[in-house]
Amino acid sequence: MKTTIGFSLAVLASLCIAMPGMAAGPPSPSTDVFAALSGLNSSAETQGELAEMYDRVLDLEPDAGNRRLIEQVRAATQATEIGVNTSNEEWVHVKNTSLTWGGRIQGDWVNWADDSQFDGEFNYVEFRRLRLFAAGEGYGVYDYKLELEFAPEVERRADVVDNHVDLGGFGVELKDAYVGIRDIPCLGYVRFGHFKTPISLEELTSSRYITFLERSLPNRLIPGRELGVAALNHSLDENVTWACGAFFDDMSESSHVIEDDNQGVRLVGRATWTPRYDELSEGRYLIHTGLGYSYTRPRKQEDSLAPWIDYRPVRFDARPEIHRGDPLIDTGDLNSRQYHVLDGELAWVHGPLSIQSELVWANLQRMEGDATDLYGAYVFASYFLTGEHRAYDRQSAAFGRITPYENFWMVNTPRGSRAGWGAWEIAARWSCLNFSEVADQRLHDLTIGCNWYWNPDTRMMLNWIHPFAHDSPVADAVNARGDIVAMRLEVDF
């Protein structure tokens, strides 16, 4: 079926390209497309075949391969200035429904093997992420998504009773909630709603596909999901991408509201270039470069001690690369009129070996005193013992799902037990965050990881994390070290 559809699409695309002499004009119904093609072969039979091909294009399920073919046909159609009216299309139906649904489950076990130099850190077991989403597309150019988190971030309270920490109440957090529209002239794809701001290779790589349990320390300087609008586009050969957006600053994912006369503003932009991408192997060999920028004017808040002051607090802190626990470094509240974040990206994939790095610089313009600079960086290397490579999505310029050459399975057969071993990956990362211009605090993490991919949707992860902090407010020494062992079982569907 896919071979037939692919052939149909190729024929349709070639026919569209073969018509450079078409006059410019407003979009016309799809029947006009075939009327325009009648010069190639005026037989009713040929026009009927072309109409059937086009109907097949519109009825395709929205998987990655078919979407690429559909966009190639659209590009060819637009190049000849024919235009296609999609008013009669409906939401694409997948498995007899009008939407796609899915989610992810991540269960973590984290153990401080050595916390003697820190102030009694706690081990924990948690569902790191429990998410459900619904998504769909239709009417030719629209798509949408709603994703909710049922294991929200909660702050650890100071009161401890019988060695148990009170984590507070439970709620639901809003992750993705947006609608998008493709093929807008000049802008490309435009998205409205609550979603990730387009900055940072590591941030834009889904938590389903990151190499370690948690993102690196510099990610604390990178904005996450916000409420706003963004435009994303790419070159025809997909070697260059660019994105920009405007967002409200610091919307609560739990309350889903910014109740303030001054909501703050965040402007974000990102550009990437892939100077090398091996087409034949679908990115088994590639080089990725990128540069991102963020400008933030924080929300104005009232200072109870001095309500007449223009008070715009900004705060950055960082744990070691785990989800819960005390921050090992903390800037405290900094009154800043605005701040800038600049992020540089670099990634290299050579078969099973890959290297990735980012450098992040944040410049805070303080209300009083000189500007303050915060720095962060990471570099990691990973290697697939079983020969796979890290998958790369060219349109989003981020890494994607790993598909093992062989899934993990074990069965009994008349000839004895048989098994498949899945994919195995080993990795090492160094990351750092420097707050020395605020409180002379610095944090470094060394992380060694091993990932076992049972299939494209399931994996087990093991991390050994060695944090070493300078002048940490929760440490018993100026230079404190510790050891953490963490495991995760992850399923996404």
CATH superfamily of the largest domain: Porin
Query: Tell me, what is the CATH class of the largest domain?
Result: Mainly Beta
- Which structural class do the helices and strands define? mainly beta
Spatial extent as radius of gyration: 26 Å
Q: Count the helices. How many?
A: 6
Please tally the β strands and state the result.
26
Count the domains: 2
**Proper CATH architecture of the largest domain:** Beta Barrel
Describe the structure.
The chain has 493 residues and is mainly β. It folds into two domains: 1-88, no CATH class; 101-492, Porin (Beta Barrel). Helices cover 13% and strands 46% of the residues. It contains six helices and 26 strands. It has helices at residues 2-17, 30-36, 44-59, 64-79, 201-204, 436-439; strands spanning 100-114, 124-138, 142-149, 160-161, 164-165, 173-184, 188-196, 225-234, 240-248, 265-277, 285-297, 313-314, 317-318, 329-330, 334-350, 353-366, 372-384, 392-393, 398-399, 408-413, 416-421, 423-435, 441-455, 458-470, 479-481, 483-492. Strands 1-2-3-6-7-8-9-10-11-15-16-17-22-23-24-26 form a 16-stranded antiparallel barrel. A two-stranded antiparallel ribbon has the order 4-5. Helix 1 crosses helix 3. The longest helix has 16 residues, at 2-17. The radius of gyration is 26 Å and the shape is globular.
